[in-house]
Amino acid sequence: MPHGPPMEPGIYTMILRIKESSDLVGESKPAERSGLGRFELKAGQGVENGLKIKIGSLGELLFPQGYYAYTGSARGPGGLSRVVRHQAVLEGRNPSKRWHIDYLLPHTTLEMVAVTRTSLDLECSVARDIGSKLEAVPQFGSTDCDCLGHLHRSCERGPVVEVVLWAHSLAQAEAER
Q: Label partner for 56 (CA 20 to 30 A): which of 67, 100, 150, 174?
């Protein structure tokens, strides 16, 4: 989790790695500290066709091998403590399944979190910027907006991190205006 009060509002992106079938029990590695909020996922490693996971109302989805970045909003009363909640779901300390990401998190390890501290509604802007460069998982995290999706995929880690940091730098510039 980035430095600063967790009650502070913001937009985050989590970069996660899907656990291999032999690694479905265990602890995630800690998130890198940064001024940005993003989880990155490596999906289906060691699984020939990827990993099938039931994602709430979206049903069963196949997550092909690759890296995933999920963008969310933390502008409510708890602010960025939502990222702490997501990490508890990922680690199995919170079994709650409220959002699409909650169904995916237990099958992942946390690679990185990017956060933009702002009270502005920039979640969709960040997701669209990321979606302009990376493939979206349709409707994932976006059933309450007109975005294609708030979860994006790349075959390699480097491009995911680069695009996420770029999108959050644009959001940070907007937040500072």
A: 67
Does some domain include residue 3? no
Provide the number of structural domains found in the chain: 1
Question: For residue 5, is it within any domain?
Answer: no
Range of the domain at 166: 10-176
Instruction: Average the pLDDT over each of 22-26, 106-110, 121-125, 166-170 and give the range with the smallest value.
Output: 22-26
- Using the CB atoms, write b or e for 25-46: b if 16+ within 10 Å: eeebeebbeeebbbbbbbbbbe
In order of 46, 60, 94, 122, 153, the CA distances from 73 in angstroms are 32, 24, 19, 8, 19
Q: Is 60 helix (H, G, I), strand (E, B) or coil?
A: strand
- pTM exceeds 0.70 for this model: yes
pLDDT in tens, 108-166: 889 999 999 999 999 999 999 999 999 999 999 999 999 999 999 988 899 999 999 99
The three-class DSSP label of residue 5 is coil
The pLDDT of residue 28: 35
Kindly state whether residue 1 falls inside one of the protein's structural domains.
Answer: no
Q: Can you give the C-alpha Rg of the chain in angstroms? A: 15
CA dist 144 and 152 (Å) reads: 17
